[in-house]
Design brief:
eight-stranded mixed β-sheet; two-stranded antiparallel sheet; single chain; about 325 residues; alpha/beta; Rossmann fold
Length: about 325
């Protein structure tokens, strides 16, 4: 697609901020309200072996049990998204699906803002998932909800092998998910896109911690806060799992976001919107500063919430409103 000539970059304006009510999912999120366990068990009968009663007498699962979390995710993917075959190697990140779906719905709204309020559907929209992981969650949900094309990238060959097995086992994903390995662990965007290759958005769950010890400490604090730290019971280190690259990197989330901001400027002509989840609120202001130095034109901060967990989605672009409108008309219509 022809690109406009480069021009001097202006300082980033004040970010646009939005935030849902605490615990409120996106209106299009399929996971509103209580889980329908009979329907989930019908979609994935193995879940029945893990259902328990919570303190209020309602059906639930033991979220401290990694095996239960994995089977629960499998049932959610089967019931809501038609994914009949999904598995991940032991020890890999098993993500909370409602929150991952929220990220994608917010990105759909972001694209609509450059498309006369209409969400673009179908394979003309191409998304780049940085750190697709063994679970391949974003491509699975995004293909089902919006029919977008996905390119999932990762530095770990085992994670990519798992993601490829998931894609191959679900025929409806054929031709819609491409997986590439980032050969240089020091890079995020550099070395991934070929010349004249364009994507409409990028998304990422950055590693939150600076070390394995910090990740373990964070999990212990979570159990204590939830009142589940029972000395008589051996709890997993991480109930949702996670390998090193999924959970921590030198410098933690802040260092990763700084590198992402810098590298995004180097591929700015090939990507319409960049985005990332930001776990720590203090890192949002840091990221804004790095994006200003990189020359981003617009930054948007979207509050995201699932239960008691609060997060932020930060999106940025190096294209002005006119350029984004031209991009949408030439690629999506």
């Amino acid at each position: 697609m022809p690109q406009p000539p480069k021009r001097p970059r202006k300082p980033t304006p004040a970010a646009v901020k939005t935030a849902p009510s605490k615990g409120e999912l996106h209106p299009r999120n399929r996971h509103q309200g209580r889980y329908d366990f009979p329907a989930l068990i019908k979609a994935s009968p193995e879940l029945g072996d893990f259902v328990i009663s919570n303190p209020y007498g309602k059906p639930s699962i033991d979220f401290a049990n990694p095996a239960a979390v994995k089977v629960f995710n499998r049932a959610l993917l089967a019931q809501y998204y038609g994914i009949r075959h999904w598995d991940i190697p032991d020890g890999y990140l098993c993500p909370p699906i409602p929150g991952r779906a929220d990220y994608l719905h917010n990105l759909a709204d972001l694209l609509a803002s450059d498309n006369d309020g209409q969400i673009p559907h179908g394979e003309k929209v191409r998304a780049l998932d940085i750190g697709v992981g063994a679970n391949c969650i974003y491509p699975l949900i995004g293909r089902c909800e919006y029919g977008w094309q996905f390119m999932g990238t990762d530095i770990a060959s085992e994670a990519l092998a798992s993601a490829r097995a998931i894609v191959a086992a679900n025929p409806q994903l054929a031709g819609g998910v491409e997986l590439r390995q980032q050969a240089n662990a020091e890079h995020i965007f550099l070395g991934l896109l070929q010349a004249q290759e364009y994507v409409d958005l990028s998304l990422c769950n950055p590693p939150f911690h600076s070390s394995a010890a910090e990740a373990t400490s964070g999990s212990t604090r979570k159990w204590r806060n939830l009142g589940k730290l029972d000395p008589k019971r051996k709890l997993p280190v991480l109930n949702f799992g996670g390998q090193a690259a999924e959970l921590w990197c030198p410098g933690g989330e802040a260092a990763f976001l700084k590198r992402m901001a810098s590298e995004s400027a180097q591929v700015a002509e090939q990507v319409l919107w960049f985005s990332s989840l930001v776990s720590k609120g203090s890192n949002v202001e840091l990221l804004q500063g790095w994006l200003a130095k990189a020359g981003a034109i617009e930054v948007r901060i979207l509050g995201m919430s699932q239960g008691q967990k609060q997060s932020r989605l930060v999106a940025w672009t190096f294209k002005n409103a006119e350029e984004r409108s031209t991009w949408s008309k030439s690629r999506w219509r």
